[in-house]
Amino acid sequence: MFLDHKKLASSGDSYEEMRSKAKGLLRPLTTKPLQPLSSHRHLICLICLLFLSALFLTHSEAACNPQDQESLLWFSGNVSSSVSPLNWNLSIDCCSWEGITCDDTSESHVTAISLPLRGLSGNLSSSVQNLHRLSHLDLSHNLLSGPLPPGFLSALDHLMVLNLSYNSFNGELPLEHGSNKFFFPIQTVDLSSNLLQGQILNTSIFLLGAFSLISFNVSNNSFSGPIPSFMCMMSSPQLSILDFSYNDFAGQISRGLGRCLNLSVLRAGFNNISGEIPVENYNLSELEQLFLPANHLTGKIDNNITRLKKLTLLELYSNHLEGQIPKDIGHLSSLQSLQLHVNNITGTVPLSLTNCSKLVKLNLRINRLIGNLTELEFSQLKSLRILDLGNNSFTGDVPDKVFSCKSLTAIRFAGNKLTGQISPQVKELESLTFLAFSDNRLTNITGALKILNKDFVSSGGFPKLQIFAIGGCRMRGEVPAWLMKLKSLELMDMSQNRLVGSIPGWLGTLPNLFYIDLSDNLLTGELPKEFFHLRALMSQKVYEATEKNYLPLPLFIRPNNGTANQQYNHLYYFPPAIYIRRNNLTGSIPVEIGQLKALQALELLGNNFSGRIPDELSNLTNLERMDLSNNNLSGRIPSSLRLLHFMSYFNVANNTPTRPHATEDDELKKTLVVGLATGYLVGFSSILLVCAWRVYHVKRACISGINGVDMKQNYT
């Protein structure tokens, strides 16, 4: 027998009509009379014919369930794709449609819809609720919006996996109350990164009946009220992952969470949670991640936390925790990330900490820690990559043992009371990208840099170093010549030292350097023309093409830079800038400065520059801030500066300009005032637009001020 598929394919036929046609198209094979054969061979041929017939009948009977097909068509009618249409064609069995899976029963019910990353926009049709055998629904990473249909969750009583993450669904969760169902086989719920809001109530029949729930993720939304813990009673004994982070949950952490005895991940950071961490949480022997940063937690870190032997991540930063770091913290031998920064923790760093030999990231910045770091056996931390002990009150010498951690990529000791010198061993950290010793009491940093200078003559220096910050270290001498080896360098801060001599022209040969601060030193001489050959600042395209990675540690800008003590976690958002304030530089401002078209901030105040203000400054069309005050500049303010539409700050006070004619002077004042106001408004509007775009995907990722700072980074 054979099936004429061309005659069968008709988009206007109903399911029953298609089946009737299929039966009508089954025609008996025309065969000749059988020749005498052995009964054995005849039996084999007969079995083969029956087998082929059975295969065909199974295929023809296994067409997509018509009710499910209709529900899918309603679903597709509510969405569109920016990538390519779903192309769910009626001429094709819906079980063969993109992203659709059916069971192998005779009714061929739809059991799975998997359409992640398809650029789908529109609403989620309530017709999905009619797919009663649906066990997997994955519409993640799309552009779907609107509320979830009423009764959506409880209607899908076969659903095991629900993933609607990274969309724009809004409204409250349709968690029904009073349903006659008492069991739901759901195992995974991922609603993260949407615009959902409201409370998650403990009367939800769906969650109360989720006895098989393993993972529940509602992070990065706008949920409020207390963090739900009722799932940790008897309803979800297998619960392993709870993620409530980046929401508006408030109140205290429920003691009931301590009953989720199989919990391995508890994340509730970036909320408004207050109170102390319940001691019941320390009974969670399977816990691997405890993520509670950026809340209002108080009290001490209980020493019972060391009972969590499987803990790999402990992040409690940006709270109001006090007291000391538990002295037996070293019992957490599996710990890989310990971040307790921005708290009120006191005392010394426990010696046992270095027993956490698997540590990759250690951040204790901005606390009230004291003591001598040389007592710590940093050499045991072979896996350590990021170390931040800045902004505390550590004393004594810089710990040489830290330089034996060969995997280090970022070090910050800035803002302490360290003395001594930086060991030449630092040159062995070939993976180093971030080095900050600013604002310490180093007594021989100049000598250390001279030693490094000798070693770097025959080597490639730090081949990956991007950040070099040693401001406020009382360093004497000239700008170290070995810095010319740092071809990956993007940001240099040597401000507030005692540097002498002239600014070397070879700084202009560093291909990636886009931020330099040499302010508050004793530099003399003229600005070399070669300095203004900085390739990363030559054009906006070149600047944007320069690789700017996510920083391993945040960068801070001092208030006297005019940026309100801002903090940046990504080099991309860092302003291209040249700060050479308050030195003893002389001569004219080179016209070559007009080549740096990507520059956003230029401050040369407090020097002895003379001559005119170059017209070429008007080429700096991205400039937002310019301060040339307190110099010996003369002549007129170039009228071409009115072309700088983004300028929001301009200062040439305390110079000796020649006053132009009154009418020209008045016109220029008007132009500059209007230009500054326009730049301010345009800049502020741009900030709002950037924030709107980021909030679309990352909750509260951009709570900005006038200077465009990502305030969320203040937590990190």
TrEMBL record:
Native organism: Brassica napus (Rape)
Membrane-related topology note: Single-pass type I membrane protein
Keyword terms, alphabetized: ATP-binding, Leucine-rich repeat, Membrane, Nucleotide-binding, Receptor, Repeat, Signal, Transmembrane, Transmembrane helix
Record-annotated membrane-spanning stretches: 672-696
Signal peptide: none
A family per Pfam: LRRNT_2
Every Leucine-rich repeat-containing N-terminal plant-type domain range: 66-103
Name of the protein this chain belongs to: Leucine-rich repeat-containing N-terminal plant-type domain-containing protein
Keyword Nucleotide-binding: yes
